[in-house]
From TrEMBL:
GO molecular-function terms, A-Z: signal peptidase activity
TM annotation in the entry: 21-39
Keywords: Hydrolase, Membrane, Protease, Transmembrane, Transmembrane helix
Keyword Transmembrane helix assigned: yes
EC class of the enzyme, as a word: hydrolase
Domain Peptidase S26: 15-222
Catalyzed reactions per annotation: Cleavage of hydrophobic, N-terminal signal or leader sequences from secreted and periplasmic proteins
The family this protein is said to belong to: Belongs to the peptidase S26 family.
Name of this protein: Signal peptidase I
SUPFAM superfamilies in alphabetical order: LexA/Signal peptidase
Keyword Transmembrane: yes
Length: 251
Protein backbone atom coordinates (compact mmCIF):
# COMPACT_ATOMS: atom_id res chain seq x y z
CA UNK A 1 0.00 0.00 0.00
CA UNK A 2 1.57 3.25 -1.08
CA UNK A 3 1.10 6.68 0.49
CA UNK A 4 0.23 9.65 -1.60
CA UNK A 5 1.14 13.27 -0.95
CA UNK A 6 -0.76 16.23 -2.27
CA UNK A 7 1.35 18.22 -4.74
CA UNK A 8 2.80 21.43 -3.37
CA UNK A 9 1.18 24.61 -4.54
CA UNK A 10 3.13 27.71 -5.49
CA UNK A 11 1.90 29.39 -2.30
CA UNK A 12 3.11 26.57 -0.05
CA UNK A 13 6.51 26.49 -1.78
CA UNK A 14 6.81 30.25 -1.27
CA UNK A 15 5.99 29.84 2.44
CA UNK A 16 8.64 27.11 2.81
CA UNK A 17 11.27 29.28 1.10
CA UNK A 18 10.32 32.26 3.28
CA UNK A 19 10.67 30.14 6.41
CA UNK A 20 14.11 28.91 5.34
CA UNK A 21 15.32 32.41 4.48
CA UNK A 22 13.88 33.79 7.72
CA UNK A 23 15.59 31.10 9.81
CA UNK A 24 18.91 31.76 8.05
CA UNK A 25 18.62 35.51 8.65
CA UNK A 26 17.75 34.95 12.30
CA UNK A 27 20.79 32.69 12.80
CA UNK A 28 23.02 35.24 11.04
CA UNK A 29 21.64 38.03 13.25
CA UNK A 30 22.24 36.03 16.44
CA UNK A 31 25.81 35.23 15.37
CA UNK A 32 26.43 38.88 14.52
CA UNK A 33 25.01 40.19 17.79
CA UNK A 34 26.57 37.62 20.15
CA UNK A 35 29.76 36.37 18.55
CA UNK A 36 31.32 38.08 15.53
CA UNK A 37 30.85 41.07 13.25
CA UNK A 38 32.62 41.80 9.96
CA UNK A 39 34.10 45.26 9.46
CA UNK A 40 35.77 46.88 6.43
CA UNK A 41 38.72 49.23 6.99
CA UNK A 42 37.82 52.56 5.37
CA UNK A 43 40.99 54.62 5.94
CA UNK A 44 44.77 54.60 6.48
CA UNK A 45 44.70 55.59 10.18
CA UNK A 46 45.63 52.10 11.45
CA UNK A 47 48.51 51.41 9.04
CA UNK A 48 50.55 49.30 8.93
CA UNK A 49 48.54 46.75 10.98
CA UNK A 50 45.41 47.43 8.95
CA UNK A 51 45.22 48.68 5.39
CA UNK A 52 42.35 50.27 3.53
CA UNK A 53 40.46 47.39 1.97
CA UNK A 54 41.05 44.87 4.75
CA UNK A 55 37.95 42.89 5.73
CA UNK A 56 38.28 42.01 9.40
CA UNK A 57 36.37 39.95 11.95
CA UNK A 58 35.49 41.59 15.28
CA UNK A 59 34.85 39.49 18.38
CA UNK A 60 31.86 40.62 20.46
CA UNK A 61 32.32 38.34 23.48
CA UNK A 62 35.76 39.71 24.48
CA UNK A 63 34.26 42.78 26.21
CA UNK A 64 30.70 41.68 26.88
CA UNK A 65 27.67 43.22 25.19
CA UNK A 66 26.07 46.65 25.09
CA UNK A 67 23.27 48.15 22.99
CA UNK A 68 25.97 48.89 20.41
CA UNK A 69 26.42 45.15 19.89
CA UNK A 70 23.04 45.17 18.13
CA UNK A 71 22.67 46.56 14.57
CA UNK A 72 21.64 50.24 14.55
CA UNK A 73 22.38 50.50 18.32
CA UNK A 74 18.80 50.57 19.64
CA UNK A 75 18.61 52.20 23.11
CA UNK A 76 17.39 49.02 24.81
CA UNK A 77 19.64 49.24 27.87
CA UNK A 78 22.68 51.06 29.26
CA UNK A 79 26.02 49.66 30.33
CA UNK A 80 27.40 46.25 29.36
CA UNK A 81 26.23 42.70 30.00
CA UNK A 82 29.01 40.36 31.27
CA UNK A 83 31.37 43.31 31.06
CA UNK A 84 35.04 42.41 30.58
CA UNK A 85 37.66 45.17 30.52
CA UNK A 86 39.73 45.57 27.36
CA UNK A 87 43.52 45.51 27.56
CA UNK A 88 45.99 48.21 26.65
CA UNK A 89 47.17 47.59 23.09
CA UNK A 90 43.92 45.98 21.87
CA UNK A 91 42.65 47.01 18.44
CA UNK A 92 39.08 48.06 19.21
CA UNK A 93 36.02 48.80 17.09
CA UNK A 94 33.69 51.37 18.67
CA UNK A 95 30.93 53.84 17.88
CA UNK A 96 32.01 57.46 17.71
CA UNK A 97 30.82 59.30 20.86
CA UNK A 98 29.47 62.30 18.96
CA UNK A 99 27.66 60.21 16.32
CA UNK A 100 26.63 56.66 17.22
CA UNK A 101 25.98 55.85 13.55
CA UNK A 102 29.71 56.11 12.75
CA UNK A 103 32.04 53.20 13.55
CA UNK A 104 35.77 53.71 14.18
CA UNK A 105 38.71 51.39 14.77
CA UNK A 106 41.76 52.41 16.82
CA UNK A 107 44.28 51.01 19.27
CA UNK A 108 43.44 51.32 22.96
CA UNK A 109 46.21 53.20 24.78
CA UNK A 110 44.61 54.67 27.89
CA UNK A 111 42.53 52.87 30.54
CA UNK A 112 40.22 54.59 33.05
CA UNK A 113 42.25 56.77 35.40
CA UNK A 114 45.39 56.79 33.21
CA UNK A 115 47.28 59.98 32.47
CA UNK A 116 48.25 60.08 28.78
CA UNK A 117 50.61 62.52 27.08
CA UNK A 118 52.36 62.61 23.72
CA UNK A 119 55.74 64.36 23.62
CA UNK A 120 57.96 64.43 20.54
CA UNK A 121 55.73 61.78 18.99
CA UNK A 122 56.32 59.34 21.86
CA UNK A 123 53.42 58.24 24.06
CA UNK A 124 53.68 58.46 27.85
CA UNK A 125 51.32 56.53 30.14
CA UNK A 126 51.27 57.66 33.78
CA UNK A 127 54.59 59.43 33.29
CA UNK A 128 56.34 56.42 31.75
CA UNK A 129 57.19 56.33 28.04
CA UNK A 130 55.97 53.44 25.91
CA UNK A 131 59.31 52.24 24.49
CA UNK A 132 59.62 52.45 20.74
CA UNK A 133 62.30 50.82 18.64
CA UNK A 134 63.06 52.38 15.20
CA UNK A 135 62.70 49.97 12.29
CA UNK A 136 63.72 52.25 9.43
CA UNK A 137 62.07 54.52 6.88
CA UNK A 138 59.55 53.35 4.28
CA UNK A 139 57.02 54.96 1.96
CA UNK A 140 53.57 55.30 3.47
CA UNK A 141 51.46 52.78 1.47
CA UNK A 142 48.45 55.07 1.75
CA UNK A 143 50.27 58.27 0.72
CA UNK A 144 52.64 57.82 -2.25
CA UNK A 145 55.78 59.93 -1.93
CA UNK A 146 55.41 60.38 1.84
CA UNK A 147 58.21 58.81 3.91
CA UNK A 148 57.48 57.55 7.41
CA UNK A 149 59.62 56.15 10.22
CA UNK A 150 58.47 52.79 11.54
CA UNK A 151 58.58 52.13 15.29
CA UNK A 152 57.89 48.92 17.18
CA UNK A 153 55.96 49.47 20.42
CA UNK A 154 55.42 46.65 22.97
CA UNK A 155 52.09 45.47 24.34
CA UNK A 156 51.65 44.28 27.94
CA UNK A 157 51.32 40.69 26.66
CA UNK A 158 54.85 40.79 25.24
CA UNK A 159 53.86 41.13 21.59
CA UNK A 160 54.48 44.36 19.69
CA UNK A 161 52.86 46.45 16.99
CA UNK A 162 54.30 48.92 14.47
CA UNK A 163 53.45 52.61 14.24
CA UNK A 164 54.18 55.22 11.56
CA UNK A 165 55.60 58.68 12.28
CA UNK A 166 56.15 61.26 9.54
CA UNK A 167 58.30 64.05 10.92
CA UNK A 168 59.00 65.85 14.23
CA UNK A 169 56.61 68.61 15.22
CA UNK A 170 53.63 67.23 13.34
CA UNK A 171 50.19 68.15 14.72
CA UNK A 172 49.43 65.81 17.61
CA UNK A 173 53.10 65.02 18.35
CA UNK A 174 53.08 67.22 21.48
CA UNK A 175 49.96 67.32 23.61
CA UNK A 176 48.63 68.21 27.02
CA UNK A 177 48.14 65.55 29.69
CA UNK A 178 44.87 63.69 29.22
CA UNK A 179 43.28 62.17 32.33
CA UNK A 180 41.02 59.34 31.19
CA UNK A 181 37.66 59.48 33.04
CA UNK A 182 36.21 56.43 34.76
CA UNK A 183 34.25 54.28 32.36
CA UNK A 184 36.11 55.67 29.34
CA UNK A 185 39.10 54.81 27.14
CA UNK A 186 41.75 56.71 25.18
CA UNK A 187 42.38 55.62 21.57
CA UNK A 188 45.20 56.28 19.11
CA UNK A 189 45.71 55.31 15.48
CA UNK A 190 48.91 53.42 14.61
CA UNK A 191 49.50 55.85 11.73
CA UNK A 192 50.11 58.56 14.30
CA UNK A 193 50.36 61.53 11.95
CA UNK A 194 47.35 60.49 9.89
CA UNK A 195 44.78 59.65 12.54
CA UNK A 196 41.93 61.62 14.05
CA UNK A 197 41.69 60.04 17.49
CA UNK A 198 41.45 60.76 21.24
CA UNK A 199 44.07 63.50 21.04
CA UNK A 200 41.29 65.71 19.68
CA UNK A 201 38.02 66.47 21.54
CA UNK A 202 34.75 64.85 20.53
CA UNK A 203 33.72 67.87 18.48
CA UNK A 204 36.73 67.39 16.16
CA UNK A 205 37.99 63.86 16.70
CA UNK A 206 37.20 60.98 19.02
CA UNK A 207 37.71 62.27 22.55
CA UNK A 208 37.28 59.78 25.38
CA UNK A 209 35.31 56.69 24.35
CA UNK A 210 32.61 55.46 26.80
CA UNK A 211 32.81 51.77 27.65
CA UNK A 212 29.27 51.20 26.38
CA UNK A 213 30.37 52.39 22.90
CA UNK A 214 32.77 49.48 22.43
CA UNK A 215 31.62 47.04 19.77
CA UNK A 216 34.38 44.47 20.08
CA UNK A 217 38.00 43.44 19.60
CA UNK A 218 39.49 43.10 16.11
CA UNK A 219 40.73 39.52 15.93
CA UNK A 220 41.96 38.83 12.41
CA UNK A 221 41.97 39.95 8.80
CA UNK A 222 39.72 37.58 6.91
CA UNK A 223 40.24 38.96 3.40
CA UNK A 224 41.92 41.98 1.85
CA UNK A 225 41.77 43.97 -1.37
CA UNK A 226 44.52 46.48 -2.23
CA UNK A 227 42.84 49.86 -2.28
CA UNK A 228 39.46 48.22 -1.72
CA UNK A 229 37.05 46.56 -4.14
CA UNK A 230 33.77 47.83 -5.54
CA UNK A 231 30.62 45.73 -5.66
CA UNK A 232 29.81 47.48 -8.94
CA UNK A 233 33.21 46.56 -10.47
CA UNK A 234 33.44 42.76 -10.22
CA UNK A 235 36.89 42.64 -11.80
CA UNK A 236 38.31 44.41 -8.75
CA UNK A 237 37.30 41.40 -6.61
CA UNK A 238 40.02 39.37 -8.34
CA UNK A 239 42.54 41.94 -9.60
CA UNK A 240 42.87 43.71 -6.24
CA UNK A 241 42.65 40.66 -3.99
CA UNK A 242 45.65 40.40 -1.63
CA UNK A 243 46.07 36.76 -0.62
CA UNK A 244 49.12 37.56 1.54
CA UNK A 245 46.92 39.29 4.16
CA UNK A 246 44.11 36.73 4.30
CA UNK A 247 43.48 35.08 7.71
CA UNK A 248 46.19 37.20 9.40
CA UNK A 249 45.84 37.40 13.21
CA UNK A 250 45.82 40.82 14.85
CA UNK A 251 46.67 39.82 18.44
Amino acid sequence: MTSQHAPKTAASEFIEIAKTVGAALLIALVLRVIFFQPFTIPSESMQPALLKGDYIIVSKYDYGWSAHSIPFSPPLFRGRILDKAPQRGDVVVFHLPRDKSITYIKRLIGLPGDRIRVAGGQVFVNGKAIPRRPLGMIEDPGAPGVRVMQYAEPKPNGRSYVTFDREPGHEGDDTEVYVVPEGHYFMLGDNRDNSLDSRWPQELGVGYVPAQNLVGKARFIMLSWKGGASIFKPWTWVMRFDASRAFHRLD
